[in-house]
Specification:
Number of helices: 8
Mean pLDDT: 95
Order of helices and strands: HHHEHEHEEHEHEEEEHEE
CATH architecture of the largest domain: 3-Layer(aba) Sandwich
Number of strands: 11
Oligomer: single chain
Largest sheet: 7 strands, mixed
Strand content: 25-35%
Radius of gyration: 17 Å
């Protein structure tokens, strides 16, 4: 079974990434709305929405929000936390809508989960299809160049009384993170695998899906992207008008 089907829905995932808080999500949404000009009433699709931490702020800004994610557990929590959004269990690689959205976002490195780059192409084509002509697509990916340069090969993290022993490495073009969980007498092993796509490769995939790329920035503060310094790679693109 694919690693993301067994990891994202666990309480351990939420514990480990709990520092990705609501303030961080609010900053992302504020930047996205400001740069795309999406106004109250805009239809927003949040691809790989997780537990809805970004959707919450889009809703607060008056947007009509739909969130899709593979994890049934994450979608169930998102429905409880953000009842005014429409959340659905859906694989982002599969078509979801036809020209229904003004803005589509894919945040927090939600591509590259498969060794097959065609999976990413399918997800990006689905994003393109979901947008109305002139609509914006915002893709947030890791800055692979910096991640590889500063890779921490091993560390131990404690959160909520749980010990996480984490190892990282590059294996056959994928960044692999193995997470050993010690929860009292219980032990679990999870992993994350993300394709080590360089910025030029990510942008090429977005263009190949049909988008017009306008800019690459860091995030959530929209400084110009710099491969040596930026923490994130944010691609700002539009579906062209007919």
């Amino acid at each position: 079974m694919a690693w993301y089907r067994t990891w994202f829905g666990t309480p351990y995932y939420k514990l480990l990434y709990g520092h990705r808080d609501h303030d961080d999500a609010q900053a992302w949404v504020r930047t996205i709305l400001g740069r795309t000009g999406a106004a109250p009433g805009a239809a927003v699709l949040d691809m790989a929405c997780g537990r809805g931490r970004h959707a919450r702020w889009f809703v607060d800004a008056g947007c009509r929000v739909t969130g899709i994610d593979l994890s049934e557990e994450s979608i169930a929590e998102a429905k409880r936390e953000v009842p005014d959004a429409d959340f659905r269990v859906h694989d982002i690689r599969m078509p979801f809508a036809d020209r229904q959205f003004d803005l589509v976002v894919c945040l927090f490195t939600s591509l590259g989960y498969s060794a097959d780059v065609d999976d990413d192409r399918r997800a990006l084509r689905a994003a393109f299809a979901a947008l109305r002509p002139g609509g914006w697509f915002v893709l947030d990916f890791m800055n692979t160049a910096r991640v590889l340069k500063e890779l921490v090969e091993a560390e131990c993290v404690r959160s909520g009384g749980i010990r996480f022993t984490i190892t990282r490495g590059l294996e056959q073009g994928q960044l692999v993170k193995r997470i050993a969980v010690k929860d009292g007498e219980e032990e679990h092993l999870f992993e994350e695998r993300v394709a080590a796509l360089m910025p030029e490769q990510v942008e090429a995939l977005v263009r190949d899906a049909g988008f017009v790329v306008h800019e690459r920035t860091d995030g959530p503060d929209p400084e110009p992207f710099d491969a040596a310094r930026s923490h994130r790679l944010v691609v700002w693109a539009q579906r062209p008008l007919p």
